[in-house]
Specification:
The protein has three helices and no strands. By secondary structure, the chain is mainly alpha-helical. Helix 1 (about 5-15) runs antiparallel to helix 2 and helix 2 (about 20-30) packs antiparallel against helix 3 (about 35-60).
């Protein structure tokens, strides 16, 4: 059984070729996930995509944002 978090990770990997699509899907994911899942997603995103999308990640996961 696949969790919503796993599904979102798959989607983000598939759209990571396009900055606009990646940001759109990431914002949507943050809205639908539970706070603990959003924390996990944040850690995973920075691990996977910080080299390409550091600015996008900082915009979607601002430091003052607490889950």
């Amino acid at each position: 059984m696949t969790t919503m978090l796993d599904y979102i990770k798959t989607i983000l990997q598939k759209v990571s070729f396009d900055k606009w699509l990646f940001e759109k899907e990431l914002r949507k994911a943050i809205r639908v996930l539970l706070p603990e899942e959003a924390k996990q997603l944040r850690a995973w995103c920075y691990e996977q995509f910080s080299d390409r999308y550091h600015v996008v990640l900082n915009k979607c996961f601002p430091p003052q944002l607490s889950f």
